[in-house]
Amino acid sequence: MAKAYWIARIDVHNMDGYKDYVAQNGAVFHQYGARFLVRGGQYETKEGTSRSRNVVIEFKDYETALACYNSPEYQRLVAMRSPHSEGDLVIIEGYDGPQP
Q: N or C end of the chain: smaller count of CB under 10 Å?
């Protein structure tokens, strides 16, 4: 079964307000077995547009990734985060087929 990922690109407008979201999201992600693969960090945009913060979170499967996002616990965090940031979030199923 293929893993799944949240791929988020975020611009934070109010870091003080955003810090509350960061401080509280770990408990929700832990509940769904999520694991950060990318959480900020150095980057270089080679093509297209970018935002100031990039995050990739791994889940055991697509259903779990969706369930986490749609959970009341995470939706409370979305409401907490939204006034302080703007971003793009894609939930995507990983590929686990043959490789070149």
A: C
Instruction: Please answer whether residues 15 and 85 qualify as being in contact, where contact means their C-beta atoms are separated by less than 8 angstroms.
Output: no
Q: What pTM was computed for the model? A: 0.93
> With the CA atoms of 23, 71, 12 and 57 taken in that order, what torsion angle do they form, in degrees rounded to the nearest 10?
80
Token output for 20: 């509350």
- The answer on pLDDT for 56 being more than 90 is yes
Read off the amino acid at residue 40.
G
Average pLDDT estimate for 29-35: 98
Q: Please, is 73 exposed, middle or buried when counting C-beta atoms within 10 Å of its C-beta (0-12, 13-18, 19+)?
A: middle
